[in-house]
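Open question from group meeting: does this chain pack into something compact, or does most of it stay loose? Before anyone orders reagents, we agreed to write out a predicted structure and look at it together. Recording both the input and the output here so the notebook holds the full record.
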Amino acid sequence: MGTASSLVSPGGEVIEDGYGGEGGEACEIPVEVKPKARLLRSSFRRGPRVIGASFKSTGSVDLEYAAEYERLRKEYEIFRVSKNNEIASMQKKEAKLDEENKRLRAELQALQKTYQKILREKEAALEAKYQAMERAATFEHDRDKVKRQFKIFRETKEKEIQDLLRAKRDLEAKLQQLQTQGVQVYSQNDSDSDDNQTTMTVLGSEPSMGSMMQLQQTFRGPEFAHSLIDVEGPFANVSRDDWDAAVASLLQVSPHVPQALWSNTVRCYLISTQDTKAELDIFIKKHSSMLRQMCECLGHFYLNVYFPEEIAASYVMERKQEIERSSVCVSVIEDCEEAFVRNLDGHSLVLYLRTEEGSTLTGPIRQLLERVNTADKAVVDHSGFAEDGANLIYAQLMNIIKQELLGFEGADVDSKDSVIDEGREEDSGDVLWDLHDEQEQIESYQQAYNSTTSQLGFQKYIDRLNDMIAAPPPTPPLLVSGGPGSGKSLLLSKWIELQQKQSPNTLFLHHFVGRPLSTSSELVLIIKRLTIKLLQHFWSISGLTMDPSKILEEFPRWLERLSARHQGNIIIIIDSIDQIHQAERHMKWLIDPLPVNVRVVVSVNVETCPQAWRLWPTLHLDPLSPREVKSVVTAECQGMDLKLTKDQEKKLERHCRSASTCNALYVTLLARMITSGRSDWSLEKSLEQCLQCQDTMSLYRLVLKMMLNSLETDMLCLVFASHNGVSESEILDFFPELELPVLSFLLHHLNRLCITTLRCGLISFQHLQACEAVRLEFLGEGSSSASYREKLILYFNQQLSQDHVTWRVADELPWLLQQQEERAKLQLCLLNLFVSQNLYKRGHFSELLAYWQYVGKDKSSMATEYFDSLKHYEKSCESEEDMTKLANLYETLGRFLKDLGLPSQAVAPLQRSLEIRETALDPDHPSVARSLHQLAGVYVQWKKYGNAEQLYKQALEISENAYGAEHPSVARELESLAVLYQKQNKYEQAEKLKKRSVKIRQKTACQKGHMYGFTLLRRRALQLEELTLGKDSADSAKTLNELGVLYYLQNNLDAAKVFLARSLEMRQRVLGPDHPDCAQSLNNLAALHTERREYETAEDMYERALEIRKKALSPDHPSLAYTLKHLAMLYKRRGKLEKAVPLYELSLEIREKSFGPKHPSVATALVNLAVIYCQLKNHSDALPLYERALKVYEDSLGRSHPRVGETLKNLAVLSYERGDFERAAELYKRAMEIKEAEPSLVCGNTPSRHSSSGDTFSLKGPAPPPHAPR
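C-alpha cells returned:
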C-alpha cells in the first residue's frame, strides 16, 4: 500500500496498473500523484462496510464506485500519458545536456591545454628574453674587449710601422750619403764585435768635476768599455749583460737535473771507518741538531745518511741511491774513492784526513788527495782529539751548506732567527710567494716526465696537440681527457719537453695539481703563481695585489697586457684541473676569448669533467694497446732480471683487454707487483693474485693488504692525515726505533710500488688512487683519520712550545686544527705571531684569511687580536735580537693590514717598526729602508704621492749605500718609484727607472746561489766537453773554444783558461800555428790574462795573434783592427804610449776603409787616438781628431747622445789645458746639459755597463778587477 503501483479492489482483487503490467517492473510514481492517491484511498474508505446491507444499497454503491473508478482511471491514464511525455522530454533534455556537458568539458580541457601552452610559451619567452639580455651584455663585454685589443694592436702596429718607416728613411739617407762618397758598405757581420752596435748603447760619464777650476787631465776614450773576448761563432756579439738575460731566461725553464740539486733536503752522506767512528758519532750527537735547526729555519730539511759498517753490505742498492741523491758527502780518506768516483754531478765533498805524528801517506792516498784538491773539494786534516775533529767537520760542513748549497755566500746566518728569509724577499719586490710551491711544481714536472721509461705510443697524441696549438686563433682551451692513471700527466710533460726544444720563443707556464685539499690544489695560489711567473718573464713583478678575489679577477688582464709584449706564444698547461675546488666557477676567463698568442691546455678526468668544458676541442687518451701493455711489462721485468713464460704472457694478454685493465697506471702497477712480490710468493702466485683485480683501485688495495707491514701502514696513514705530506726527518721523530737505512729501504719499496714519492722533501702519494686506497683500506671510519691528525697536532705543538716555528709548523698545524674543527685552538695558533708571519711572508695570504674566517673573525677583530698579541709580546722583548724580531712582526702586521684594505690601521705598526729599527739598529740600516718602503705604499693607497715619493727616495738612497747600485733591493725601490710616476703620468721618468730596474734584475738573476744555480749551463758545458773527447779536429777545437767562452761568460776564468788553452793546442796541431783560428784562441787567452791583470802574458799573446792576422788577412780586415785595438789598449794600460800610437793609427785607417769616414766606429777610433795624443801632451794633433769625432757622432747619433757628451767633455778638458777657458766652459756646459738630460736617479754615480759591444767592464779604473776563480 505504500506505493501506487498496485491497487486493491473492493473485492480484494489486486488491480495491476499499466506501469508494471507488461514489463514486470515497478514504476516510479511522480510526487504529484500522492494527493490523488490519498484521495483515492479516502474515497475507498468513506465509511465502514455495512454488514448485512441491502443488495440495492450494495449495488448502488458498487456502481458509484465503478463510475468513480472509471473516472479516476481515465484521469490517471491521462496523467500517466502526460507524465510519460514529460519524462521522455526530460530524458531527451538530459541526453542533450549530457552531450552539451561533454562538449563543454572537451572545450574546457582544450582551453586548459591552450592555457598551459601559452603559459609555457610565456615562460620560454621570458627565459629567451633574459638569455638575450645576457648574450647582449656578454656581446657588449666581448665587443669592448675586442675593441680594446684591436686598439692596442692597432696602436702597437702603427707605432711599429712608423718606427720602421723612420728607420728605413734614415738608412736610405745614410746609404745614399755613403754611396755618393763612393764608400763600399759592409754588413755588420763583417765587422768586429766592438763597434757594430755603437748606436744602440750608452757610455758611462765621468764623475762630476764641479767647476772648470777642478778640470784635470782625465782624457779617456771609449775603448775601456769594449769587449776583450773574440767570440766568433755561436757566442758572437754576446756580452755579459746579454748573458745575464739569457741565463735568467734559461733558469725559468724546468731542466731535468739530479735530485740532489733540486731537492729541498740537505742530505749529508757520512762514511766512516773504525778509526774515525768516534768523530762521526760525536758529530751526529752534538752537531746534527744544530745543522737541522739552521736548515729548517732557512726553509729546508737536513738529514744525516749513515750506513754503519756492520749493516752496509745489506743495503747495497740503498747506499748507491743515497750517494747519488746526497747533497754533500763527509768521508774519510780510505773510502774517498767510493764517494768521489760516484759523485758524478759534482756534489760537495768534505774529506776527513786523520794523521798521526811521524806517519806518511801512501801513493794511492796521495793521488786521491791530488784529485780532491784539483776538484776544489774541502779537506779537513786533523791529528788531535776526536771531539776537535768533529768540530772541524761541523765548521766546514756549515760553510758548505750556507754558501754552496743554500746560497748565503759570505753570510753569517743565525739559525735562531726565525725570519732569516728577509733577504730573499727582496728578489720578489712587494710580492710574497712561496719558493716551496715553485720547487714542488718543478719536481712534479720531473717526476711526471720520468714516471716511465716505456714508449707508450704518445707520438700520435703529441702530433694532435701540435695541430691544435697551431690552429688559427681564437682558440678555446684544449682538453686532454682520460680515466684516472691513463697517462695525462706523462703526456703533458713529454709534450712540454719537446715544445721547449722546438719552440724556444714560446713561454710555458705549467701547473700540476696534487691531491685535493693540498696546497697545490689551492686556486688562488695557482693563479698567483702563474701570474708571478708571467711577470717574472718580463722582469717586473710589482703591482700584484694580495687580495684573493682580485688575484683571480686580474689574471686575465695581466695575461692580455703581457701577451701583447711577448714576441712568441704563451702556453698555459694545468694538469688535473678538475681537482681544483669550484674551478668552473672561479676560472671563467677560460671561457672568454683568449689573446691571439695565448693557448691553454688542461687535463681532466673524463668522469669529473664539468659539462660546460666538454664542448672544447678534446684529445681523449685511449687504453693501451696489447703491444704497449707488453712493452711496459717487459721493461719492468728486464729491470728486475726476470722473464715471463709464454703461458704467463698469454694470461696477461687475456687479462688486459678491458678499459680498466689496459690503463697505463694499472699495467705499470701490475708489472711492478709481479716483479716485486712478497718473498714467500713465487712469480706464478704473484701473477695469480694480481689477475684477480679488475681495476687500479682493487690492485692498490691488494698491494696495501699483502705487501706492507705495520710500520709502513702507520707511515702511510700519517701521510694521508697531513696537509702536504711528511718529511723523512719527521718520520724518524715519530718512530724513534726506526733507523735511516730501514727508512731508505721502505721508501724505495713504496716508490717502486707507485704508492709514495719524495716531492719538495716531503713524502706524498704518487697518485690519487693510492691515496684513496689507503683511506679505504686503513681509514674506513673518520675517527681513524682523526687519531692520526691528533698525533701530528701533538708533534707540531711540541715544536711550537719550543719557539721553533718553521714553515712546516705554519703549513700543517693550522690546517690540522681546522680539519679537527677545533676553532679555539686554531685561534690560539694563529695568534702565535711567528706562525702568522710565516704564512703571510710565504704568500699564503688567502690561506691565513680563510683560517680567520673559519674562526669567525672579521678584519677589524683580526687587527685588534694581533695588536693585543704584539703588545703582550713587546713586554718580554729586552735584547737587540728580540727588538729586531719585534720590528719584523710589526712590519708584517702593517703589510697584512694594508693588504686587507685597512691602510689607516696599517700606519701605526709600520711606524712602530720604523721607530724600533732606527733606535735598535741604525738610521741607515737596510731594514729601515724596508720600513720606509712599506710606509710609502700606504701613502700611495691614500694618493699622497708627494709623501710616498720622498719615502721611496729615502729607501733608495739607504739601499744604494748599503748594497750598492746593482742589488735587488735597489731594483725594488726603482720599480716602486716607476709605478708611482706612472700614476702621476710621468711616463718618461717611469720608463727610465723601469729600464734600470730590469737591467739590475737581469744581472742578479744568474748570480743567485740557489741549489740549482747553473746546473743547466753546466750540463750544456759537459755536453760540449764530451764532443771534444774524440779525435782531434778543427770542429773539436772550435767546440773547446766555445766552451771556454761559455765559462768566461760565467766568470769561471780558471775553467775558461783550461778549455781555451786546449783549443789553442789542438788548432796548432791540426791547422798549423799560423792559421787565423789560432789567432782567435790567442786573442781570447790574451783577453782572459788581461782580466786577471797578467799583462805580460797577455801582451805576448796579443802580439802573436797580431802577427798571424797580418800574414793571413788583408790589411783592411776588421779582425785585424780588432786585435790592433786591444793590443793598443794593453800598451796604453801599461803606459807604453809610444808603442800604442802606431797601432791606433793603423786601426783608424782600417776602420775608415771598412766603414767609411762617417761611421761611428771611425769616430771611436779617432777619440782613442786623440786620448793617446793628449796623454803624450801632443794637444795640437789631438784637437782636430776630437773635432772630427764630434762631428761624426753628431751626424750619426744625434746631438744629445752620451757619446757626444763624452767627446765634448774631453774637448773641454783639452781646451782648458790649452788655456782657452771660455771655450772650455762652453763645451763643458753643453756636456753637462746632455748628461743632465737623464735624471741623476737613473744613472747615479755608476757608469753605464753597456757599450757599443755591450761589455760589462768597469769604467772607473784603467783595468777591470780580476775575478776570483769559482
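Observations to bring back to the group:
The radius of gyration is 47 Å.
The chain is about 60% helix and 5% strand.
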